[in-house]
Please model this.
Amino acid sequence: MNARIAHIASNTFREAVRDRVLYNLIAFALLISAAAIFVGQISIDIERLVVVNLGLAAVSLFGVVIAIFIGIGLVSKEIEKRTLYTVLSRPVRRWEFIVGKFFGLAGTLVVNAFFMAIGVFGALLYVAHKFSAPDALILVALYFIVLEFLIICSLALLFSSFSSPLLSAVFAFSLFVIGSFADDLRGFAGLTHGFARWIATGAAYLVPNFSALNVISAVAHQQTIGSQLILQNTLYALFYTTMALSGAVLIFERRNLK
Amino acid sequence: MAAIEILGLEKTYMVGFWRKRPKRALHPLHLSVEEGEIFGFLGPNGAGKTTTLKMLMGLVFPTAGTARILGKDWTDPEVKAQIGFLPEQPYFYDYLTAHELLDYYGQLSGVPAKDLKHRIEEMLQRVGLTDVKGVQLRKFSKGMLQRVGIAQAILHDPKLVFFDEPMSGLDPLGRREVRDLIEQLKREGKTVFFSTHILSDAEALCDRVAIIHKGELRGVGAVEELTSAVQGKVEVIWQGTQTPSSMKALGAECHVTGDTVRAVIPESQQDAAIDALRREHLRLIAITPLRTSLEAYFVEKLQHSQTTAGTTK
Model:
């Protein structure tokens, strides 16, 4: 990473850390973990299942909300507040700005996920009193959640590069919801014929496949996750993120900052 | 070598929601600014000054034309390491302190880490912000933010500095300090290009000015040249509190201020005025040709352009 990207990323991270809303969301996530403990205590023999399911779902959901909430304003807010003028009048290329912003937000989410994961493991230890070997799979689920964050970050940045924060939020959240049912959409495409099949298949493959990244239920049921899926998901997330970021760069490179 | 060469830069925006129509913000602009000079870019609000500056900074893309800055193509990233820019009414990351902001900008501009801390302290002192450590920018007044803006523009010791309305938001003392700072930058050999609609600032500071109105360049030249048009009158100042009748007879418009009298007379009556003062044993302090002020030149150019536009219609 070049130095300018690192500086922009570091400043983006600092902004997120100093944003009080971020603290509120972390507090909320911790509250969910506490709720998991409570539900775990009133569930007979399925405490682990409930805690892992609820805890990881909270990590994912709150991470996505933070990613969208911050991501949609990353570029548009800088244009609106004109803070961008004094950055781009320096030897900073526009693509470096976008990539720096991406790494800053991604870094924020990884740190955030790390602390929330500690909460999940803490809750698990509380209900199960000890860790067992299948608990290591929770790390795989967390890794997939981080991959999910990367995609959401890049999409939020893409929308932020040409749209208002409100519309960007609508677009990003819609894609998150649709992407969570990407498998169903692909299944539906398989049932259609002719031109409709082309359209449905195109749409099914265009939206991010978040359902493939969601292994929370499998991990909660202590099912193993194949290394092939880990590799596939990694490559898919990197490819999708790169494409979305490239789109953001292409749009931003041509944008007049009035 | 020219510090800035603007070669036919122009900008047309498409406006309207359904039926887009072109709106020209800047007609083809040709302008050259020499190294080491203070150049004023003058015009009323909405004249195209900020659009021009934004194009030079690469924030807005021109419809046509190009520019060279410090002898290099303006899009060359190396150029930006040698220029400083203060936008109009600057906004900064308000969650940062002035030190943090300057540290960030210094890093982006490639200032060596070992020099940065010292440079930041020096810059803050230079713009009169000495007691702001640990204070976030959201607590700064408009004038303080303007000072931070000036500090960030010169932090990396640029060869060329662009200021967009640098006196905006400053009190009289602050404006004086910024004027002194701009003059100091010139003494350091830097080129200063600043846009303003406050003509007294331009007249006091600039070597040359350009006047722009409705996106068109209306005039360019040295301040002395533009204000040298003698109106055929001279200003006579002498010590005293009364106006001799012989001076009144010359058609003089006299104004008494304290123990001096100022009179404006036709140039042809200059010798007669000196004789009159000598006869009355009054001490002559000064006699100078009356020059056009920059403001008068500016208003004339603007009125001329409006008349031309009216005639064309």
